[in-house]
Amino acid sequence: MHYKIGEFSKITQLSIKTLRYYHEMGILIPPNIDDESGYRFYDEQSYERAKLIKLLRELDFSIKEIQEILENYEDEDDIKAYLLEKNDIIQQRINQYKKLQEKIMDYQTYKEVKIMLNEVQKIKVEPMLIASMTYVGKYQDVGDYLGKLFKSVGMNVNGKPFSIYHDDDYKEDKATVEVCVPLKKEISYQNIDTKTLPGGDALSLLHIGPYETLSDSYKVLTDYIKENNIETKSPIREHYIKGPGMLLKGNPNKYKTEIRILI
Predict the structure, then answer these.
(1) Model pTM?
(2) Same domain, 209 and 128
(3) Residues 149 and 175 occupy one common structural domain
(4) Other Cβ atoms closer than 10 A to 66
(5) What does the pLDDT look like over 204-248, one tens digit per residue?
């Protein structure tokens, strides 16, 4: 059985414009085209192919993905495999959208918060015996590595945790971060560094508020350094005076983070 493009449009419920587009993209080529009139004629095999393309488009497969499927699939099992793969991709998108929703809700909360911008203080930092782990990754991973560090060090912890940021600029996902905890006494731990962190004169700024607003305090500190022509020594340290617990986040608006940099 052969169908003119108008007839084929009705039985497939695909517009003539769409059928012509699919022809141009090479995913639904009419098996017969009249040389004189240019009329397109479709057959039963075209109908089955059109149904598959329509299904895949309804399931959010792109034209390029459909091209690849049509070039490689052999039977129904192959289609099932592609559908399962697409399901995984959709789940990843759902997870990404959920994270975006969380950020939107966080912004709605944080935009009403008045960040307490404290003054920069000059302090004396004493040398400190610490245990540390250094990783390359995202800043948000600090909590995970601090959890591992606390688990290894246990009762030998002697103060609040902190991080040392070894990069001079902001990194999207390849930041070099050293998570640290002060120690009561020097003990060797597997896969953990123990050392004495040098002290000296430093600038200190206490940030009160969620971590997402730390940039406000970093600007205050940077402006102070530039205005007073102060020479600093990298890297910057972030001391978590009050933050989320191991199980519950608590109130982010009351987090206290001390930013320190040696001078």
Answers:
(1) 0.61
(2) yes
(3) yes
(4) 20
(5) 999 988 888 888 899 999 999 999 999 998 899 999 999 887 767
